[in-house]
């Protein structure tokens, strides 16, 4: 069994590998890391207003507008009228363009599928319980960091 220090190192290496994979995926898609993250949000959650996207990415509204412009020029997203309030504009994914992203991430998905295949259904339940609870914890920690650095 690994000691607490060894577990810390193992976990840090895991997080670093996930981060590096995200950066490599962004680069392969011709995107910056923040654009990659924003595109992930839009593809997972569907159409978002620019304000929602600004809040979720931690960018200013001006920086978010420029980010949307870049994603739109690259063909990954489009602006559309909000179906519930025609005065608002939402940013939605372009489905055909997301197929290009799938090509970029397929090797990683295959490798992780191979890793997950090593586990029993009960172990997978435990892993996915961790993912379910860790993701919001990291988002909250991110907000704490942002609040601290913004003063």
UniProtKB/TrEMBL annotation:
<dbReference type="Pfam" id="PF12802">
    <property type="entry name" value="MarR_2"/>
</dbReference>
<dbReference type="InterPro" id="IPR036388">
    <property type="entry name" value="WH-like_DNA-bd_sf"/>
</dbReference>
<dbReference type="GO" id="GO:0003677">
    <property type="term" value="F:DNA binding"/>
</dbReference>
<dbReference type="InterPro" id="IPR039422">
    <property type="entry name" value="MarR/SlyA-like"/>
</dbReference>
<dbReference type="InterPro" id="IPR036390">
    <property type="entry name" value="WH_DNA-bd_sf"/>
</dbReference>
<keyword id="KW-0238">DNA-binding</keyword>
<dbReference type="GO" id="GO:0003700">
    <property type="term" value="F:DNA-binding transcription factor activity"/>
</dbReference>
<feature type="domain" description="HTH marR-type">
    <location>
        <begin position="1"/>
        <end position="136"/>
    </location>
</feature>
<protein>
    <submittedName>
        <fullName>DNA-binding MarR family transcriptional regulator</fullName>
    </submittedName>
</protein>
<dbReference type="GO" id="GO:0006950">
    <property type="term" value="P:response to stress"/>
</dbReference>
<dbReference type="InterPro" id="IPR000835">
    <property type="entry name" value="HTH_MarR-typ"/>
</dbReference>
């Amino acid at each position: 069994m690994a000691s607490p220090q060894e577990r810390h190192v193992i976990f840090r290496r895991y997080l670093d590998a996930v981060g590096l994979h995200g950066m490599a995926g962004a680069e392969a898609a011709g995107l910056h890391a923040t654009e990659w993250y924003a595109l992930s949000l839009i593809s997972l959650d569907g159409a978002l207003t620019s304000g929602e996207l600004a809040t979720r990415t931690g960018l200013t509204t001006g920086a978010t507008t420029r980010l949307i412009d870049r994603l739109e020029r690259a063909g990954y997203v489009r602006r559309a009228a909000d179906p519930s309030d025609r005065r608002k504009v939402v940013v939605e994914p372009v489905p055909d363009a997301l197929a290009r992203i799938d090509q970029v991430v397929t090797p990683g998905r295959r490798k992780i599928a191979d890793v997950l295949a090593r586990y029993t259904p009960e172990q997978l339940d435990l892993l996915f319980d961790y993912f379910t609870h860790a993701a919001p914890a990291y988002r909250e920690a991110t907000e704490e960091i942002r609040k601290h650095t913004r003063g």
